[in-house]
Design goal:
The protein is built from 7 helices and 2 strands; from the N terminus they run H-H-H-E-E-H-H-H-H. It is mostly helical. It has one domain: Arc Repressor Mutant, subunit A, CATH 1.10.10. It has a two-stranded antiparallel ribbon. Strand 1 and strand 2 form a beta hairpin. Helix 2 crosses helix 3.
Length: 160
Amino acid sequence: MRLTLYTDYSIRVLVFLTARTERLSSISEISQTYGISKNHLMKVVHDLGRAGLVTTVRGRSGGIKLARPASEITVGEVVRLTEDGFDLVDCSSGSCIIARACGIRGILKEATRAFLAVLDGYTFGDLPKSELDILDVLAAFPDARAKPGADVAALEPAAG
């Protein structure tokens, strides 16, 4: 299974806000940090707000923040919100002549349930509790900007 960039960006926004709970953040700040289009993030933040995951504060000193504690937002909730569907194969379209007999549909549904169950076991409050603080990692690699697919291990700062 491969998650969409939209899901990736949604997770990145929530990780950023989780690491910055002491103040409001701006879409511009998140865009610059990750090297993601501000326009893409505006739609992501709008949808996260409609889902009750972030709160937006308008005005000169406005910004965005988590609408609930990070420990109450599961990764599974965000993936379900941002992905269109979880059918790994299209057995119901009538295009597969063996769909009723092969049994793969049930196996893949079971695998999807297991995948989502694992994601439901983690909240955004669990994520920043690693050895390295998320913001420290981002600050160490200003040129990489955590682009999708970036290999963080290959980005380690030169010793010196």
